[in-house]
Amino acid sequence: MADFATSVRNSYQWDAPSLDIGNAVLDGKLFTDLPVRIPLAMMNRHGLIAGSTGTGKSRTLQLLAEGLSRNGVPSLVADIKGDLAGLSQPGEASPKILERVKAMGREFKPEAFPTEFYSLTGARGTQIRATVTSFGPVLLGKVLELTDTQQSVLSMVFKYCDDHRLPLLDFKDLRDALLYLKDHKNELEQYGGMSPATVGVLVRKLVELEQQGAQTFFGEPELDINDLMRVQDGKGVINVISLADVQDKPRLYSTFMMWLLGQFYFGLPEAGDLDKPKLVFFFDEAHQLFEDASSALVEHIEQVARLIRSKGIGVFFITQTPKDIDNDVLAQLGNRVQHAVRAFTPQDAKDLKSSASTFPPSSFYKVEQTLTSLGIGEALVSVLNPKGIPTEAVHLRVATPSSSMGTIEQSDYDAARRGSRLASKYATAIDRESAHEILSGKLARAAEVRADEEETRARPARATGRARKEKTVLETVMGSSVGRQAARTVTQQVIRGLFGLLKR
Ligand SMILES: Nc1ncnc2c1ncn2[C@@H]1O[C@H](COP(=O)(O)OP(=O)(O)O)[C@@H](O)[C@H]1O
Ligand SMILES: [Mg+2]
Fold first, then answer.
1. Ligand 1: which residue has its CA nearest to atom 27?
2. 3-state secondary structure 95-150
């Protein structure tokens, strides 16, 4: 036992500012004098919180977000079930909680944290929007579940619109661009051509997505990442993205989170080694990010995860088993919190082996056995010490969050929204001149030209009017009237390059 205490102390004692996450356990005994911590400076070295359903993953996430907030670090929490909204309310001192906290030699101090709610549909918080262009064809293709052929046609359409200065901002823009190109397929010949049937499929899929409510998400004003990095009275603001209302659209969630990571990646300067991160992402139900992801997309997730570290951004994946995460990404995750694994089926047993194999051998624990016997709110952990070296694995009883562990009412979301400056900033969609307007103009003028032609045939004297109008059509689509869009489009192209459209 003395050995164990010394080993934990050697492994987890340092001076650097740290997040307290709980206490060590060995053979069923809790050590109130052996705290377990994560250095604040290592929170941008990414992490994994894994474990079967109901074992305490979301509470661990909550605890980390609270600790970051107290240290002035904002975070972004993907709230799939609505059970992280409680961060905005003080926790409830139930007898069960008080007992648990007391057994850990601690005191329960209920505390609410500054939170900002967001929603992709606008139902539960500040409306989040992204333009179709900045989303890019690869992510959009994933949302629409496109085949390779359909994907390449979509990429072609984006390229065409870039080249012809047709800004794709909202859903109407993309739909109209597709409809226009379906009727003018010769326009795409120099891009390799495409079949109108494929375009028809794309239009149909787009309409389907639109009917599911996604049209509120695509457009302007686009979410500004600086709004996610606020500190209020010294506490980091916890940005809770409510995703319960898009649970039937997991692809919208996963691609949106990828888009957001990309925005941070391109929007922030290199930061070098900081004493604390600028922001930490928590991806709950992270397996959805990797489900059916093309190898190109997985490669980009890996790349962004690796590079975003140097921008001072941390990323934590929360998932049932490490196997849900691609191996190259897994290799980037320095902090590991593995909650209990409930092994029932042969497949579970295999998963258990692979979860166990991600931990270094321990002189105090049989890893596989420990993983199946961990209690709720307990985990086997190994984190990075301030030098970036993995600590000894330790059986941890996780401290209890100070905020509420439950869901909140719709009326609470509504009240939060009424009190939010950001909610009003993003409340109203802006509809600038973009592909939809330009193309409608073009088609309307073409119709006018046709009408003119008919008239001309009847009354030849009016032919000059027709020539003037044709020039206007050309000017509008190719010319300078949309030139002011160009600068913005270039920046967006850079961001989009991340997702594989542009040559690397
Ligand atoms: N650290 C903790 N302190 C107190 N209770 C906890 C803790 N972790 C888990 N629990 C209890 O277990 C329940 C399930 O935890 P949760 O984090 O929602 O599981 P998961 O996200 O893994 O499905 C919680 O509602 C809470 O009652
Ligand atoms: Mg959970």
1. 405
2. HHHHHHHHHCCCCCCCCCCCEEEEECCCCCCEECCECHHHHHHHHHHHHCCCCHHH
CATH number of the domain bearing residue 329: 3.40.50.300
User: What number of H helices and E strands is found in the chain?
Assistant: 18, 14
Within this chain, do residues 341 and 488 fall inside the same structural domain, yes or no?
no
Closest approach atom of ligand 1 to CA 406: 25
Residue 100 CA: nearest ligand 1 atom is 4
Exposure string for 221-246, b = 16+ CB within 10 A, e = fewer: ebbebebbbeeeeebbbbbbbbbeeb
Best substitution site from 59, 79, 99, 403 to test ligand 1's pocket, by max atoms within 8 Å of Cβ? 59
φ/ψ of 364, rounded to 5, equals -110, -20
pTM across the whole model: 0.85
**DSSP 8-class letter at 500:** T
223 falls within a domain: no
Domain encompassing residue 319: 2-125+232-412
Give me the residue label for tokens 């307990």.
Answer: 378
Interior angle at CA 184, CA 183 and CA 188, nearest 5: 130
Cis? peptide before 460, omega within 30° of 0: no
Looking at the fold, whether 266 and 309 belong to one and the same domain comes out as yes
Residues with C-beta less than 6 Å from any ligand 1 atom: 51, 53-59, 83, 100, 376-377, 398, 400, 405
Domain annotation covers residue 226: no
CA-closest residue to ligand 1 atom 24? 56
For residue 61, give the ligand 1 atom closest to its CA.
17
78 assigned to some structural domain:
yes
Both 114 and 138 in one domain: the answer is no
For ligand 1, mutation pick of 101, 102, 374, 376 (most atoms within 8 Å of CB): 376
The tens place of each residue's pLDDT in the chain, 504 residues long, gives 669 999 999 999 999 999 999 999 999 999 999 999 999 999 999 999 999 999 999 999 999 999 999 999 999 999 988 999 999 999 999 999 999 999 999 999 999 999 999 998 888 899 999 999 998 898 888 888 889 899 999 999 999 999 999 999 988 899 999 999 888 888 888 887 778 889 889 999 988 888 777 778 888 999 999 999 999 999 999 999 998 877 777 777 777 888 898 899 889 999 988 999 999 999 988 887 777 676 767 777 888 888 899 999 999 999 999 988 888 889 999 999 999 998 888 888 888 888 898 888 889 999 999 999 999 999 999 999 999 999 999 999 999 999 999 999 999 999 999 989 888 899 888 888 888 888 888 777 777 776 776 666 666 544 444 433 333 333 333 333 333 343 344 444 444 444 443 332
Strand partners, 279: 313
